[in-house]
Every structure is written in structure tokens, then in C-alpha cells.
Design a protein that fits this description.
Elements: E1 10-13, E2 16-19, H1 27-31, H2 34-39, H3 51-54, H4 63-66, H5 70-81, E3 86-91, H6 93-105, E4 111-113, H7 118-126, E5 132-137, H8 143-155, E6 167-171, H9 176-184, E7 187-190, H10 204-212, H11 217-228, H12 238-248, E8 256-261, H13 269-280, E9 286-289, E10 303-309, E11 324-327, H14 330-348, E12 374-376, E13 379-382, H15 391-400, E14 407-413, H16 425-433, E15 437-441, E16 453-460, H17 475-492, E17 497-502, H18 505-517
Parallel strand pairs: 3-4, 3-5, 5-6, 6-7, 8-9, 8-10, 10-11, 14-15, 14-16, 16-17
Antiparallel strand pairs: 1-2, 2-11, 12-13, 13-17
Helix pairs in contact: 5-10, 6-10, 11-14, 12-14, 13-14, 16-18
């Protein structure tokens, strides 16, 4: 990592600074007029194949203007809800991640339900149900969100028609979810139809839940608007500087981009930025959100290290040394990263708006499972054909088999609060392999589908299941079906998958960390 960031020049606009990208050649991007064309929402930037989608997907560049129309509605709704001060957000990953990041970065309480694991669902249902407002966010009502809504409606069953007061729906106009909300009498706030996926951070998907949780969303829009004027420039354009650095990284042998917190705030932003980059660059860049600047996988000759943090005061330096440092207010950060992702995609000649193939499914029940290849302590091992049956051997087979262009993707279908310790597996495996390792929670973190990953899937036994009211399955069965569908989809793509099932979660996590952390003999 570089140690001269503070002394070096920076691209600065609207309080957002990108340092360390000054040495990256931007002349080709400027010569092709990329800054001005992108700011003008030119759909031809990514080639003829991407043009049809780009014509309807570039609204994120000025959605901060249209989103202001929401502000009077949000103020009125907040006043109407009054004592409903426990905000629960349910929806798919694309629709919930930005709102969670906003609430976390700005210190506002927001409960996010993006899983069918019974543990967090039960905890949310028990937490002040009479004071809960449930925000349903997404293009449609998938089975998981349907299950959440049904569970809450059962809790509110004695409230009669008043139960509709507890629900707010954020969806695109004309969706089936909007029709359901209208039928039930719930409040509907429309999402921007010109923005989708992780590009929708500053639309109703990100703003409505955060505002109901008390976040100052007007400031976010002001911060983005202040930056927007710099995005058509060839100099002093933070989005161009960051996008050029990201776009040049794979060609320089640094296709892995480590996103690290710098200790100045906005730590959670790296998870949203990683999700955006993973989809926008079509697998050409592998973003890894690391725990700290010195965590395994955060540095290396084949890694571009990018630190993220809040705005710096006069004379204040970024926390860690990094190849590139991005500091500034949250609203400007969202727009900068989106602009940079689109710019990097142009440099890499990939379609940033291509819809990745789905992985996690919505089946009502899991197919009958096969017997484990071995059982050791609190872990059942389901080793694929050709792999050792025992735990240590299967892990060694998975990690030793990594090719020079491959990475390891770990997905835990568990409770990300009660089972949070399992996230410690990422740095352990990164240290062991010396290769990029990603970690995420299913189905929030869908398995990578770029064909260059080996996969470790972790599932866990459920001791206190919940029925889904009005459906012939439980929450645990729904989660098991999604995990099984994930495995099937990866198998169809020919990707190696090792599944480890924890028969007792806390004990199994400790055992797994211990086994993975042992030195090889």
C-alpha cells in the first residue's frame, strides 16, 4: 500500500476527495469524452449490446433531484405513524442494502429482515410489535417477504383494519406488490422506475426506510446534488478518478479490489460498494470487503486497496495507508461510487447493467437431502464427489484446489447476529490460502456466478422453527430450499461446492474456526 496519500494530489469536489488515483492515466477516458457523455446519460458508452438497457437505467445520475418529491410525503407519513417507532425493513438484497447502510452509517436504528432464518424473524416479531412499522421493499412480493408479511399480520390479527397502518410498501409503479398493497389498504411510496438494483441507493428504496428510522435524508440528497456538478469534468472529478483507478486495476494485475474501513466513519458503506462493483463490472473486478486495513486479503501485489471513510476536517489524514482513499459525506459517496462503477465498466468494455443469472430460489420445500459423507462433532460434512469425506480433508481439498484465477466464496445460511462469529472464517481462510476470500449471508449474498469461484456453503440446524401462516412450509424449510437451490445452480455451472451443516450452531462455528485455523501438516 502507498504511504504518501496525504502528501499527494487529490480530486476534490463537494467535500469528497479521492487520493492516490493521480498516477492513473485518464487520457483515454477524457479523449472519448466519457465524463461529459456519462453525465449527459449517453446510453452508447458501453457498446451496442448494452445500449437498450442503458437507455432506461441511467436515472441514478439525477435521481437525487426526483427523490426530493418524496420529502413532503415522508414528513407527512412520519407524522401520521406517530408512535410506530420500531422500523423493520423486509425485502430482497438489492432493495434493502442501501437503506441498512444509511441507517448504520448515520447511527439510526433499523431492523432488516432479508432472511428466512427463524432466529432473526422471531426476534423481530417479539420486539414491540404494537409499535412496529413494516416496510416491504422490492420489485415484487417474493416468498421470503411474503412470509415476513404473513407472520406480522398474524401478530397484528387482533388489530383488525388498523393492521394496514403498520405497513408501508416501496415498489415500482404497476408491480404486483403495489396491487397487493392497494388491496390491503397499505401506504405505497413509488420507487424511481428509471433506477434499479444497487444503483437505487438514493431512491425510495434507500430513503424511505432510513427516513422512517430518523435519518436526515434531505442532507443525503443535498450532498449528492453538490457533487453532481463536477461529474462532467476531466479534472477535479472524484468519480472519474476512482473509476479510472478501478478500470485500470485488472489490466495491471490487480483484479481483486479490497475495500477497507479507514476509521473515520461510514464503515458499512464498503459492503454496498462491493455489491455494486461485483455486478457492474461483470466479474472483471472481484471486490472483497475486509474487516480492517491489516486483515488478511486487504493488501498484496495483486490487490488494489481502497479505503473508505467520512469527510476529513482540515489537517485530518485518512486512517490507513492505501492505494486509493475515498473520503466524503455519505450522499456524495453513493453518487461517486455509482459514477466510478459505470466509468470502470466503460474502461473494461463491459455492460454495467447486465442482469446476473439468479442463484437463490424461492422453492416451497427442499428436496430430500443425501446423507453426510462424515459427521465430526457438531458438523455434518457433505463433500462433493472426489473430495475427502472428513472435515479437515474436505476443507483442504477446497482450498488447495484454488486455481491462479480463482477465489473462495463463503456463504453462511445462518443468523447474521446470533451466529456472527462465523464471519471470522473469511480472514482465517484468506490467511491460509493467500487467495481472495469473500464472505456473505445467504440469501443476502448470492453466490458469485462468474465461473471463477470455489464455494463453501454453511447451513445450520434450527431448534425453534416458525410456521409461515397460511403456507404449507415453515421458515426453516423455506431457508433450506433456498440454500439447496443455490447449490443446484452452482452445480449446473460446474462450480465446486462443499456444504457444512452445523448440528449445533455455536459449537459448530467454534469447531469450524478451529479446524480451518490449524496449520497444514
Amino acid at each position: 500500500m502507498r504511504n504518501d496519500l496525504v502528501a499527494g494530489p487529490a480530486d476534490v469536489a463537494a467535500g469528497l476527495a479521492v487520493r492516490g488515483a493521480d498516477a492513473v492515466d485518464r487520457s483515454a477516458l477524457v479523449a472519448h469524452d466519457v465524463p461529459a457523455r456519462l453525465a449527459a446519460q449517453d446510453p452508447t458508452l458501453w457498446g451496442p449490446g448494452a445500449e437498450p438497457a442503458a437507455r432506461t437505467r441511467l436515472g441514478w445520475l439525477d435521481t437525487h433531484c426526483r427523490s426530493r418529491e418524496l420529502l413532503p410525503q415522508l414528513a407527512e407519513l412520519t407524522a401520521e405513524l406517530g408512535d410506530l417507532d420500531h422500523v423493520v425493513l423486509a425485502g430482497d438484497r438489492d432493495a434493502t442494502l442501501a437503506a441498512e447502510v444509511i441507517a448504520e452509517c448515520l447511527g439510526r436504528p433499523l431492523t432488516v429482515l432479508d432472511t428466512a432464518d427463524p432466529g432473526p424473524v422471531r426476534a423481530a416479531l417479539a420486539d414491540r410489535p404494537a409499535r412496529t412499522v413494516l416496510v416491504l421493499a422490492g420489485r415484487d412480493l417474493d416468498r421470503t417477504t411474503d412470509a415476513h408479511l404473513r407472520a406480522y399480520r398474524q401478530v397484528w390479527r387482533d388489530a383488525g383494519p388498523e393492521a394496514a397502518r403498520h405497513v408501508v410498501v416501496v415498489t415500482r409503479p404497476g408491480s404486483a406488490l403495489e396491487a397487493l398493497a392497494d388491496e390491503w389498504g397499505a401506504v405505497v411510496l413509488p420507487a424511481d422506475p428509471e433506477v434499479d438494483g444497487h444503483w437505487a441507493a438514493l431512491t425510495a428504496f434507500g430513503l424511505v426506510p432510513a427516513a422512517l428510522a430518523g435519518a436526515p435524508v434531505t442532507e443525503l440528497l443535498d450532498e449528492a446534488a453538490a457533487l453532481a456538478g463536477a461529474l462532467d469534468r476531466g479534472r477535479d472529478n472524484p468519480g472519474l478518478a476512482l473509476g479510472a483507478a478501478l478500470g485500470a486495476a485488472p489490466g495491471g494485475g490487480r483484479a481483486t479490489v479490497a475495500l477497507v474501513p479507514d476509521g473515520t466513519g461510514l464503515d458499512g458503506l464498503r459492503h454496498w460498494a462491493a455489491a455494486l462493483l461485483a455486478t457492474a463490472t461483470g466479474g472483471r473486478i472481484l471486490p472483497v470487503a475486509t474487516e480492517s486495513p491489516d486483515a488478511p486479503g486487504a493488501t498484496g501485489p495483486d490487490v488494489l486497496t481502497v479505503s473508505l471513510g467520512g469527510a476529513l476536517g482540515p489537517g485530518t489524514a485518512p486512517g490507513p495507508a492505501a492505494d486509493v482513499a475515498v473520503n466524503g459525506p455519505l450522499g456524495a459517496q453513493f453518487l461517486t461510487w455509482q459514477y466510478a462503477a459505470a466509468t470502470a465498466a466503460a474502461a473494461l468494455r463491459v455492460d454495467p447493467f447486465a442482469v446476473p443469472a439468479g442463484v437463490a430460489g424461492d422453492h416451497e420445500s427442499a428436496p430430500p437431502g443425501r446423507s453426510p459423507s462424515s459427521v465430526e462433532g457438531a458438523i455434518e460434512v457433505y463433500a462433493p464427489a472426489g473430495a475427502p469425506a472428513d472435515l479437515a480433508g474436505a476443507l483442504r481439498w477446497l482450498t488447495d484446489g484454488l486455481g491462479p484465477e480463482e477465489h473462495l466464496a463463503v456463504t453462511a445460511w445462518l443468523d447474521r447476529r446470533a451466529d456472527a462469529a462465523v464471519a471470522g472464517l473469511r480472514p482465517v481462510l484468506a490467511r491460509l490460502t493467500g487467495r481472495p476470500v469473500t464472505f456473505g449471508w445467504g440469501p443476502r449474498h448470492p453466490a458469485h456466478t462468474d465461473g471463477r469461484a470455489r464455494h463453501l456453503q454453511i447451513t445450520g440446524a434450527v431448534t425453534d422453527d416458525l410456521p409461515v401462516p397460511g403456507r404449507p412450509y415453515t421458515f426453516a424449510e423455506l431457508q433450506a430450499a433456498q440454500a439447496a437451490d443455490d447449490r443446484r445452480a452452482l452445480a449446473r455451472r460446474g462450480r465446486p461446492v462443499l456444504r457444512l451443516h452445523l448440528t449445533e450452531r455455536a459449537t459448530g462455528v467454534a469447531q469450524l474456526l478451529d479446524t480451518a485455523g490449524r496449520k497444514r501438516t
